[in-house]
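ok so I'm stuck.
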Amino acid sequence: MLFLLLIFQKGLAQDALQNFGNLRVHENGMVGFHTNLINNGPFDQNLGLVGFYGQQELEVSGTEPVAFYDFEIFAENGLLLSNGLQVRNNINFVIGDLITAKNSSNIATGFVDDAFYIGAANTSHINGYASITNKELFTFPIGDGTRLRSLTLASSQTNAMAKSAYFHEDPNNPLSFNVQFNTNSKENEELEISNVEFWAVESEYPSTVTIKWFPDSFLSLLSDNAQKLRIVGWNKSTQQWEDLGNTAVTGNLESGNITSDLFVPNQYAVVTLAGMENALETLSLASKNYLLTPNGDGANDSFRPIDAENSPNNILNIYNRNGILVYSKINYRNEFDGISNVNSVFKRNKGLPSGVYFYILTLKDTGSKVNGYIYIAR
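replied:
not stuck anymore, here's the structure
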């Protein structure tokens, strides 16, 4: 196994590694950067592992974007991306953030095709824009440098490109935008819109977004009941906040998850959370629980709710015991066989462990919801 370590310390050597030629990391190769990278030549046909390490803030800049296979960040003060960076297999977040400018989505940390990540946390995530290529479902590991505030995008078609970023800013006076998203400009006066945080999300296809909140989201100021929460978006055309719905809510006002109804993200500048007094929706009173034994014997190998068959226009969300979204599907057709399709939870094609899972099935054709439990037995 080849390991190439490039170290340039200020005052002892040059401040950055500059590429003017054609660099490539071969399979099983490992390259560790302890300095800045200025990339002015091809550096995108890589295999192996590339990492950035050190206590100081590091930077990737130059005229040519870079693309790595496996990527690791262990830079305590982060890695500033002044140039595009793509990953084709895995990002390992250890310490430090991947930082991009938040006033534009032109530069982003890109996850290509089946790329995924591990280790995202408050201490290490993407502080800026993340993008996906050729994905239908993805949880963006985004935040503001001190808190991870992921957003899950589930689209009705595969996105050639989609992006998202998180802003711990007041939408009435955002620091990252030269426009205001006035929380008093809204389609419904009953909406109480957050002035603490918001997300940007880009996709051209009808999609749902799932957002997780925490105590510092201060949702008790918006509603007295988590089931009355909504996701709202700033419509670019009407210049007002619109209700984007609530197809699934788990948790309480301190912490939980909420999933929107279908909408086209590109029609909205940003999205955030809101409370709505008359928005309480009642779930089915019938207890509909299921046993799943995905062993290939033809019995109970997949989740087959009759309600979904009777209402093909539906949205399914499945959560584990910790309230983490592990599966999401628009227009569900009995595909769930115990394998997560959320890359931030498990790598694709990895089965979920045996145990109890909670599901919420929104039936668009009948305007109702069904919830219950799925017990996976392997």
